[in-house]
Design a protein that fits this description.
The protein is α/β, with parallel strands linked by helices. The protein has one domain: Rossmann fold. Helix content is 34%, strand content 17%. It contains 8 helices and 10 strands. Strands 1-10-9-6-2-3-5 form a 7-stranded parallel sheet, covered by helices on one side. Strands 4-8-7 form a 3-stranded antiparallel sheet. Helix 7 links the parallel strand 9 and strand 10. The longest helix is centred in the first third of the chain and has 18 residues. The radius of gyration is 17 Å and the shape is globular. The structure holds fructose -6-phosphate. The site of fructose -6-phosphate has 13 residues, from loops.
Length: 248
Amino acid sequence: MIKIEKNSKMVGFSAATIIARQLIKKPNSVIAIPTGTTPIPMYEAIVKLVEHRIIFTQKARFFNLDEYVGLTRENPMSYAYYMKKHLLSKIEKVQHDIPSTDTRNPEEEANNYEKRIEKVGGFDLCLLGIGVDGHIGFNEPGTPFSSITHVAHLHPSTIKRNSKEFGKTVPDIAITVGIKTIMKSRSIVLMATGTEKSKILKDAFWGEVTPDVPASVLQLHPNLTVLVDEKCATEITSSANDFHWMNL
Ligand code: F6R
C-alpha cells in the first residue's frame, strides 16, 4: 500500500509509528535501518517515542543497511557516525550492528554481516530510502535480485551526489545488504520525499520490475508500505487515472 503524507516530517512520523507497532508486538524485533536525509525525521520521532516511554528499544536489534568502505567510525561522513548522531546517542543502549568501516577485507566483512543477519533470523522489518537512480541500500542499477550482502561499487550519479558532502575524497565502494536479503524481510517500508524522488517513485512502483531500477523488485514483496510526501507524489497523483495507485 502507498500512503501519501503532507510533508517529510509526517513521513518520518508514520515510519516511526510502524517501528513502534513492531516493537510493541515483538520487543526483540530485528529491524534494518537506512541513513541519509529522508529518515532524519523518523529518527527524531523515534527518539521522542522512547523519551515518552511509549516504546522501549533495549531488546530491539538494529542493523544498518550499508556503510562506506575506507572510513573510520569517527569520520563524520561514516554511517556509524550518522547513527550515533541521530539515534544511538539519544536513546538507551540498543543492540546495533553495521558493517565495519575500516576493514581491510571488505568481502569477508560483507559475508560476516550476512551471517550475523541470518543468525538472528533475518529482518522482521526493513526500512528503506530510495536513490534518484532507484537504488535501495547501495544496490545500484544492474545489481542482481539474487544478491546477498556484498561489496558494492557506487553508481556515478551517487558519487556525484555525495561529492557535495565529501568534497574530493568521495568513497566509491560500500558494503550493502543485498536485494535478496532485503526481500526476505517479513515487512518492508520505503520512504521517499521531495520532488527530486517523484520520477523514480513512478518508475519503481508503476514501471517494469527490472534490475535497472533496483527498487522495482519491491513490487513483488507481499508486505510493502510506501510512505511518500505530497511533493514526491506529484507524478503519481497527476496520472492517477492511469495508475492503480492505491493498489500496489
Ligand atoms: C543509505 C541508503 C540509501 C539511501 C538513499 C536515499 O543507508 O540505504 O539507499 O536511502 O540513497 O538517500 P537520501 O534519503 O539521502 O535521499
